[in-house]
Specification:
Blueprint (H helix, E strand, L loop, with lengths): L1 E8 L5 E2 L16 E6 L5 E5 L12 H14 L7 E3 L2 H4 L13 E3 H11 L2 H12 L2 H14 L26 H12 L5 H4 L3 E4 L4 E4 L4 H4 L3 E9 L3 E10 L2 E10 L2 H18 E4 L10 E4 L5 E2 L2 E2 L5 E4 L6 E8 L2 E2 L7 E9 L2 E9 L9 H15 L1
Parallel strand pairs: 13-18
Antiparallel strand pairs: 1-17, 2-12, 3-4, 3-11, 5-6, 7-8, 9-10, 10-11, 12-16, 13-14, 15-20, 17-19, 19-20
Helix pairs in contact: 1-4, 1-6, 3-4, 4-5
Length: 382
């Protein structure tokens, strides 16, 4: 038998956000391939031909930036590093800041150049700085893609240029791009660069204007990366945050630059208009569970995680939580052992179930513990 506590209204006010996977929604975008994902949970809210491999152009650089940020976090490279451009980096075509072979630039300026103007020369120099060569860096890119479960992705370079050997096999999907975009956005420092509209490098001598026009024209834009080649068309991974909720809209193979921005705005607007985030918070309402033959008489379960739950905005007003815990548990109890369930509901309908677990282990009482306790009771009783 389980003891139940009546549902309690969530104390925190809810804001705009995401929801369970939605298919067949009344939304149509011009982009041939598209996906809308809520960043905190990775929930897909809309998809259109989202798993077809396509050339991503410079949206590739999201993975390049992710590996740079991870190398910084791991201490393999440093924010104060100076990066030297190799001949290979300086020879890159397409978007660039026109590095000369041997030219040195701070890592931060190179990172800014990649993010803001999609500089291929800086992307290559950073790749070489991280891994020694672009080829070695590409191996890291594909390994990381596998770790992120980007199942339909194969990289052959760090830039997305399609005039290089094997470029026809450099492919990914809208869904896979959303996965790596979500991973990159977990690095808060990248937002210092992806939200730049205009800036400069080389002591102000070389101006930068962001290729992502949403940074200036769409409320809450946090990034992320544009791309274009004649084969890939106009591509974009766009992210925006309002009231603590962030969406990622990926559109590929658009006919014009304007079309990609309009399609991304349409997806983001849809997310903000229709979904919200709820944070289950039972606080002190979880009752203790008696532990039979344990070194502690009771244990108070805790939620297995504090992840937010995605719901439709219309469900927010009726949100409640219900807690169910075991009547008792027999020792030994392992840390993380499930002891109950926290259920998030809207008007009585369940939305999500969060396991309630033991926060720590409770060993079983030994024979000597039991004997000593009995003697103590007898002595006190005397």
């Amino acid at each position: 038998m389980k003891r139940k506590l009546l549902a309690l209204a969530l104390a925190a006010a809810l804001a705009v956000g995401g929801a369970p996977v939605v298919h067949g929604v009344s939304l149509e975008v011009a982009a041939p391939s598209a996906v809308l994902m809520e960043a905190a949970t990775g929930t897909v809210l809309y998809e259109k031909d989202a798993h077809t491999p396509l050339p991503p152009a410079s949206v590739t650089k999201i993975m390049t930036l992710l590996l740079v940020m991870e190398a910084l976090d791991a201490g393999r490279i440093g924010w104060d590093d100076t990066v030297t451009a190799s001949e290979a980096a300086a020879a890159k075509g397409g978007s660039q800041v026109y590095l000369e072979a041997g030219e040195q630039m701070s890592l931060q300026e190179m990172l800014k150049s990649v993010v803001v103007v999609s500089a291929n020369d800086c992307a290559t120099a950073l790749a070489e700085h991280v891994a020694g060569s672009e080829a070695a860096f590409v191996e890291l890119m594909n390994r990381r893609a596998q770790e992120l479960e980007m199942e339909n992705t194969h990289f052959v370079n760090c830039t997305g240029l399609d005039d290089e050997p094997d470029a026809e096999t450099h492919l990914t999907t809208a869904y896979d791009i959303a996965l790596m975009s979500r991973a990159l956005l977990k690095h808060d420092e990248i937002r210092d660069y992806t939200t730049i509209w205009m800036d400069s490098v080389r002591n102000g001598e070389f101006g930068l204007a962001n290729t992502n026009k949403l940074v200036r024209f769409y409320q809450g834009t946090t990034g992320l990366k544009t791309g274009y080649t004649s084969a890939a068309g106009h591509c974009l991974s766009a992210s925006a945050e309002r009231d603590g909720v962030e969406f990622i809209a990926v559109v590929l193979h658009c006919a014009t630059s304007g079309e990609r921005f309009q399609a991304a705005k349409q997806l983001l607007d849809y997310g903000f208009a229709n979904y919200t985030l709820a944070q289950p918070d039972p606080e002190t309402e979880i009752p203790p569970v008696p532990v039979v033959l344990g070194t502690a008489e009771t244990i108070v379960p805790v939620p297995d995680n504090d992840d937010p739950v995605l719901i439709e905005k219309g469900q927010a007003a009726g949100i409640t939580t219900r807690v169910e815990v075991a009547d008792q548990v027999r020792a030994p109890v392992e840390a993380g052992q499930r002891l109950g369930t926290l259920t998030l509901q809207s008007d009585g309908a369940p939305l999500a179930a969060i396991p309630l677990v033991a926060p720590e282990a409770v060993p079983r009482r030994t024979w000597w513990d039991v004997t000593r306790s009995l003697f103590g009771q007898l002595f006190l009783g005397a």
